[in-house]
TrEMBL record:
Thylakoid listed as a keyword: no
CDD domains named among the record's database cross-references: ABC_MJ0796_LolCDE_FtsE (cd03255)
Disordered: region residues: 235-256
Keywords tagged on the record: ATP-binding, Nucleotide-binding, Transport
Keyword rRNA-binding: no
Protein name in the entry: ABC transporter ATP-binding protein
GO CC entries: plasma membrane
Pfam family, one: ABC_tran
UniProt GO MF annotations: ATP binding; ATP hydrolysis activity; transmembrane transporter activity
Stored SMART domains: AAA (SM00382)
Domain ABC transporter as annotated: residue spans: 16-255
Amino acid sequence: MSDSIRAKRIRRTPMLTVRNLTKSFTTPEGAKVRVIDVADFHIDPGDQIALRGESGSGKTTFLHLIAGILRPNSGVITIDGVEMTALGESRRDALRAAKIGYIFQAFNLLQGHTVLENVLLGMSFAPGGADGVRARAMLDRVGLSHRLQHFPRELSTGQQQRVAVARALANRPKLVIADEPTGNLDNRNTAGALDLMKDTCRECGAALLLVSHDDATLARFDNVRDFTEINRMDNASRTPWGQPRKSGEAPSRIVE
Ligand SMILES: Nc1ncnc2c1ncn2[C@@H]1O[C@H](COP(=O)(O)OP(=O)(O)OP(=O)(O)O)[C@@H](O)[C@H]1O
């Protein structure tokens, strides 16, 4: 095979494919409610996609399934050509560490560790291991090179978000997943954080999948998909009480 044909084939391999994915939870009363029913979804390398969806529509569950944090009831998820859904827990963890950077709404920084340690610890699960030069370079890229020895509680919300971006990208992931990453930021910080996230993903060659119900966040993406058109969830699964949850409200009493 010539190099040009091989290069074209590599370029055509989607970064993420999702086929016939379902996930149900069981209520304390024993009823099963289907939260995820996605027939077909994919992301190409370098794509930047925002998913819009109302509270309780299953966005976080979908992201957890893609990252291998949750297991589906049925369906296939492929990350960079590797079938995540065929792997056991430890190999799913390894695939996630190697290929995926995850930015949580609450950032999930380790409070007892410094900014630099947070990035290094995140890297330590990936094949390349913790790399101080790379960690410092990422923190410099997000404008925090003067805060390496500070603890998360000593930073503003926007600065903590930038640590989360640096940590997510330090391993050179192929896919960055961001779950309402600007939910805790004001409008000015939201714009800056999104530009930083998008630019850094582009520089690192990572695809970006972000979910949000915030119009200001969605407006910064050319490619916005409506999650309710992708996911055919049961109406009953919107909440166990039949009303959409409000953003920030505690999760339902349903157990997995
Ligand atoms: N671990 C779980 N056990 C039981 N039910 C769950 C679990 N996780 C989510 N659910 C239920 O699944 C539905 C979808 O929740 P999910 O958090 O995925 O929605 P979301 O679109 O991310 O909502 P939000 O925008 O409010 O964060 C909700 O009804 C929720 O109560």
